[in-house]
Amino acid sequence: MKVPLLDLQAQYATIRDEARTAIDEVCESQHFILGPRVQRLEAAIAAYSGAAFGIGVSSGTDALLVALMALDVKPGDEIITTPYSFFATAGAIARLGAVPVFVDIDDRSYNMDPSLIERVITPRTRVIIPVHLFGQAADMDPILAVAAAYGLAVVEDAAQAIGTEYKGRRVGALGQVGCFSFFPSKNLGGFGDGGMVVTSDPQLAERLRVLRSHGGKPKYHHSVVGGNFRLDEIQAAVLLVKLKFLDQWTARRQRNAGEYDRLFRNAAIDDLRLPEAVWRQSGDAHHHIYNQFSVRTPRRDALQAHFKNAGIGTEVYYPVPLHEQKCFADLGYSATSFPLSHRAAGEALPLPIYPELTDAQILHVVETAVSFFRA
């Protein structure tokens, strides 16, 4: 039995006709950049997240970049974030000449440990970027409290977490700015790159709109230097189709995670650690949206090879934490600077969790893992 890590063709089969009709309508209109569908998507994502404004942009990476630009981050400013994330989190900081300052993760959630933030704040600190990794919310209350105490902005990297809830509120609308990605592998994925910035600050929203179009307002008149961060109309059209199914797909991911959890616990594998839904006790319907279902074992690489031989797709997110990347060597960190991030990078292995996964496929994944650990 073949079990891919992600099967986008299975999802596309369920929306093919509606998606093609939406794309055809854009082609007939010949309006491809920042048109009415982008505006509708902006309003829909803002409402879905509990924010007042949405600003469609070209990618999740550009969402982070333009958010920091809108907050007037300058070279030499310090931005506190996690070393266990996709590269864009720190890359957006470095592109502005600012300095990533890392704090280690909480070992249960993979997200930044709020208790470590205050000790790295300096007079140059401007922003905190928590990442809601794998679809689970960071512990936002203490993060927001320390940010308020020191006058810092909070930019949420919610690229993997659209619809995730933290104590009854959806992520992205908890800080000053929230950043989403519509990369095809995300729970709400487009037919290419795309992203969204959400905020409830009207002045910040307007600045974001200006910055995404080269900083021009009105057209050809530039008081600031922005970039070309605009969302395509075709992507917006596809995403509007998919958004109607997002809660249904999220529920299926959560159901699949529950089935994995039940089967793995029945198997009682000592050397395999399952992901935890940390905010389950809050009663939130969307406490964890499972963009990834990441198990952990010290024998990760051997387990991945075993899965590959059995026709099961996996991928390591992320094998080299950000503080150990060559391009950040001048920051002076070592592998031991953030031991929990270093360990997670060597042990975590996401398994297939997409909504169209069948019970037979889930059982095959679990039985294959059991055969590895009991060999």
How would you describe this protein?
This protein is of the alpha/beta class and 375 residues long. The protein has two domains: 8-243, Type I PLP-dependent aspartate aminotransferase-like (Major domain) (Aspartate Aminotransferase, domain 2), CATH 3.40.640.10; 246-373, Alpha-Beta Complex (Aspartate Aminotransferase, domain 1), CATH 3.90.1150. The chain has eleven helices and eleven strands. The protein has helices at 8-29, 36-49, 60-70, 88-95, 140-150, 202-212, 233-243, 246-267, 300-309, 339-347, 359-373; strands at residues 53-57, 78-81, 99-102, 125-129, 153-157, 165-166, 169-170, 177-181, 195-199, 293-296, 348-351. The two termini are 20 Å apart. The model has no long low-confidence stretch (mean pLDDT 96).
The DSSP helix count reads: 11
What percent of residues adopt helix (DSSP H or I)? 25-40%
Radius of gyration: 21 Å
The quaternary structure here is single chain
Strand content: 5-15%
CATH topology of the largest domain: Aspartate Aminotransferase, domain 2
What are the segments in which pLDDT stays under 50 over at least 5 consecutive residues? none
- E-strand count: 11
Q: What is the structural class? A: alpha/beta
CATH homologous superfamily heading of the largest domain = Type I PLP-dependent aspartate aminotransferase-like (Major domain)
Q: How many structurally independent domains? A: 2
Apparent shape: globular
Mean pLDDT: 96
**Main sheet: strand order:** 1-9-8-5-4-2-3
CATH architecture of the largest domain: 3-Layer(aba) Sandwich
Largest sheet: 7 strands, mixed
